[in-house]
Amino acid sequence: MALFVPAEPGPPDEVKQWVRTIGGAESNVACNLPTLGVRSGWVSAVGDDPFGRALLREVESHGVDVSACTVDPARPTGLYIKESGAGGSPVRYYRSGSAASGMGPSLLERLDLGGVRVLHLSGITPALSDSCLALVRALLDMPRGDRLISFDVNFRPALWTGRDPSLLAELAARADIVLTGDDEAQRVWGTGDPAELRALLPGPRTLVVKHGERGATLVEGEPLFSPALRVDVVEPVGAGDAFAAGFLAATLRGAAPLHRLRQGHLQAAATLLTHDDVGVPLPREVVDSLLQADPDAWSSARLTGEGVVRT
């Protein structure tokens, strides 16, 4: 979607200057992956309007293949407004009747998944419309072979008004990799505890439970917790998508479990340091050093706009 963020301080009703950028869970993940050395493609629908053209151009500028996206001549590009702040960023969506909400199973007729190693979905798409829900179900029904399906719950209460959020549990159970925040898991499954969630989700081979600024737990056997990095947060929206990209990239490389979680934290940190939904990549030497850091060095690091500070 097109994303507008304030370009000046003050309450949003008094702000007159806004910066137009892009945002959206799946596109955020796709845009983060090339910075991690992973080729990505993004599939969606945009309107035949200036926002749609800008969105495709800017997603592609991150190195993402957008050739499978469609331009809907009748429906507009969705957009949202973000009130940026370090403590949280209220978001207002204007996506009813958007081009993306018109997607359905017919999209699969022109979708080539040959060579795709991971298909990443989120719980936002099935909430947009009945046809979008049918599309996600059709993707989960397809033969996979060696391809993995990653599903980020991304529970958005406003999108599920009048709809049954238990559908998210059904869809997640059919994925290979499930990522969820403990707060949204509480809403969907009634618990945010990793061990209890694993009992409720025995099918997926990989379960990642994010605990906000505390860290994240990977469950593929014995639960493994990795604390998050301390970051001088500018604004938090998009950090969960960046974490997903970092974790998936490390998973594709066959990295050790702890490094997979740490790569997620590092990618999230880059987004936490910016107002945008996709951050500037951290310096390679910083990433390499922190990935290999011992527990004390990791916990003593703090990322700021100027670099790494040890405390």
Q: Your description of this structure?
A:
The protein has 311 residues and is α/β, with parallel strands linked by helices. It contains 11 helices and 17 strands. A 6-stranded mixed β-sheet has the order 9-10-11-12-13-14, with helices on both faces. Strands 2-1-7-8 form a 4-stranded mixed β-sheet. Helix 1 packs across helix 8 and helix 8 (239-252) packs antiparallel against helix 9 (257-272). The longest helix is centred in the C-terminal third of the chain and has 16 residues, at 257-272. It is globular, with a radius of gyration of 19 Å. The N and C termini lie far apart (39 Å).
Key descriptive features of the protein:
globular, 33% helix, four-stranded mixed sheet, 22% strand
Q: Layout of helices and strands, plus pairs?
A:
Elements: E1 2-6, E2 18-22, H1 25-32, E3 40-41, E4 45-47, H2 50-61, E5 64-65, E6 70-72, E7 79-82, E8 91-94, E9 118-122, H3 125-128, H4 130-141, E10 148-152, H5 166-172, E11 177-181, H6 182-189, H7 194-200, E12 206-210, E13 215-219, E14 224-227, E15 230-231, H8 239-252, H9 257-272, H10 284-291, H11 295-300, E16 301-304, E17 307-310
Parallel strand pairs: 1-7, 3-5, 4-6, 9-10, 10-11, 11-12, 15-16
Antiparallel strand pairs: 1-2, 7-8, 12-13, 13-14, 16-17
Compose a concise summary of this entry.
With 311 residues, this protein is of the alpha/beta class.
Percentage of helical residues? 25-40%
Count of discrete alpha- or pi-helical segments spanning 4 or more residues: 11
Rg calc: 19 Å
Broad shape: globular
Give the total of beta strands.
17
Distance between the termini: 39 Å
Q: What fraction strand?
A: 15-25%
pLDDT < 50 stretches: none
Q: From the helix content, strand content and strand pairing, which structural class follows?
A: alpha/beta
Q: How would a textbook summarize the main sheet? A: 6 strands, mixed
Query: Strand sequence of the main sheet, in spatial order?
Result: 9-10-11-12-13-14
User: How much is the average pLDDT?
Assistant: 92
What sequence of helices (H) and strands (E) makes up the elements? EEHEEHEEEEEHHEHEHHEEEEHHHHEE
